TrEMBL record:
Keywords assigned by UniProt, alphabetized: Dioxygenase, Heme, Iron, Metal-binding, Oxidoreductase
Highest taxon, organism lineage: Eukaryota
Name of the protein described by the UniProt record: Indoleamine 2,3-dioxygenase
GO biological process, any: 'de novo' NAD+ biosynthetic process from L-tryptophan
GO MF annotation, one: indoleamine 2,3-dioxygenase activity
Entry-linked InterPro entries: Indolamine_dOase (IPR000898), Trp/Indoleamine_2_3_dOase-like (IPR037217)
Annotated heme b binding sites: H377
């Protein structure tokens, strides 16, 4: 389809489906599988279902080392490939961070099938947002927007805190699905200046973002900040920018004698920055970001991806599209080629044009909603990372943290995606806010 073609209303669902977007948005159409149907994969299922006791007993690494290298040939459906990815990436992070020291080498029983599964799904061989959130949830009601009905079948800690932390994002994704058709309709309406369609979509988008903000604020209901910071967060770390934690070269994916060459790779850990939904809001509203997310002077900033592509010229938001499922990434690219609502909102109005003025007001309202969402995210980060980083942990140690107080006084706080946390989030918030301010300034010029 031409990037400038305008589909008919009844074709929106078909268009979204071509990018693997469902009635639930970037979530699958049905709940993820609870187990792989072929008994051949029972060794994987045993490990993922006994993850917490194996970690507690410090026997997980030995259990993985002695696994057979299973073929992926018995994975037949996309839900099966996705479950395999969830299992293998969670086992990867558990293997790396589930000991006294980080493990630099991922052995063939995990590395070989993980690289094949990741290639099939067009995602990196690391626990991405897709593995942790999009493909790792269950609902007791079938309403994926109802966070109280959701739980994550597989977590590192087995705590309600971790399940709640993951499922808040699942509910936000489902909430966002409701406005995807209207967003596409608005973009298609830009060339014709169909202000009514665009304004209605912007109003719906603002309401959707407010609903997502309300869900984000519920993080505090069942996820304790100290539990998150000291027990959960260490397992979410990737292999990029992790020299201080014991991975100066990243993670070595050992292929053994299974054909493909082994390699050192560096990948960011899973984070909400990898959400296609949040990036879609930015693209639709014309918000652009420039930060690479890395701390100044970080020797690992700008390293090449596993595919050999240099990342130094990419913003963080562009880079993490590599972490999104292929279809979702392509939807963002498609939307980016469509008409720009921001450009239309910035155009001068000659004479009285109340429809244009209403559209501009709706645009600034949507920008305000997205700015408030990012302010809410900053508040969550303060509660869950900044404040706990300054407090000693008195609970039982686990994983990378080992029960020790973090020495954040000597280094900059980073997010689970490896970003220089507060500066990056504040810049993203400010880059959002300025879009609304520019349109407001144009509106003021017209009134004069």
């Amino acid at each position: 389809m031409s990037p400038h073609a305008v589909p008919q209303q009844q074709d929106w669902d078909e268009l979204l489906a071509s990018f693997n977007v469902t009635k639930h948005g970037f979530l699958p159409a049905e709940e993820p599988l609870k187990s792989l149907p072929d008994a051949y994969y029972e060794p994987w299922e045993y490990l993922i279902c006994n993850l917490q006791p194996l970690l507690a007993e410090r026997t997980l690494r030995q259990s993985i080392d002695t696994l057979p290298v299973l073929s992926v040939d018995k994975l037949h459906t996309e839900p099966e490939w996705r479950r395999a990815y969830v299992i293998l990436t969670l086992l990867t992070h558990s293997y790396v961070w589930g000991g006294d020291n980080a493990a630099e080498i991922l052995p063939p029983p995990i590395a070989v099938p993980l690289l094949s599964v990741s290639s099939h799904l067009q995602v990196p061989p690391v626990a991405t947002y897709a593995a942790l959130n999009l493909w790792n949830f269950a609902s007791s009601t079938g309403d994926f927007t109802d966070v109280d009905s959701l739980h994550s079948p597989h977590t590192f800690t087995g705590t309600r805190d971790e399940s709640w932390f993951l499922c808040v994002s699942v509910a936000m994704e489902a909430q966002g699905a409701r406005v995807l058709p209207s967003i596409l309709a608005a973009l298609a309406a830009v060339p014709a200046r169909d202000y009514a369609t665009i304004t209605a979509a912007l109003d719906q988008l603002a309401a959707c973002i407010h609903a997502a903000s309300a869900l984000l604020a519920r993080m505090r209901d069942h996820c304790d900040p100290m539990v998150f910071y000291h027990l959960i967060r260490p397992f979410l770390a990737g292999s990029k920018n992790m020299a201080a934690a014991g991975l100066p070269r990243g993670l070595y994916y050992d292929q053994g004698d299974h054909g493909a060459p082994s390699s050192w790779q560096q990948w960011r850990g899973g984070s909400n920055g990898q959400s296609s939904l949040i990036q879609l809001w930015d693209v639709v509203l014309g918000v652009t970001h420039t930060s690479d997310g890395d701390a100044k002077g970080n020797p690992h900033a700008g390293t090449a991806s596993a595919a050999g592509k240099p990342t130094e010229d990419k913003s963080f938001h562009d880079e993490v599209r590599e972490y999104m499922p292929g279809g979702h990434r392509r939807l963002l690219e498609y939307v980016g080629r469509c008409g720009s609502i921001r450009a239309l909102a910035m155009q001068p109005v000659h004479g009285a044009d109340p429809d244009h003025a209403r559209m501009q007001a709706a645009y600034t309202n949507a920008i305000r909603a997205l700015t408030e969402f990012r302010n809410g995210h900053l508040a969550i980060i303060t509660s869950y990372i900044v404040v706990p980083s300054k407090k000693p942990w008195l609970g039982a140690g686990s994983g990378l943290d080992g029960g020790k107080q973090d020495d954040t006084a000597d280094r900059e706080l980073t997010g689970t995606g490896g970003t220089a946390l507060l500066p990056f989030l504040k810049q993203s918030r400010d880059e959002t806010k300025v879009c609304g301010e520019l349109v407001k300034a144009r509106m003021a010029e017209v009134r004069c």
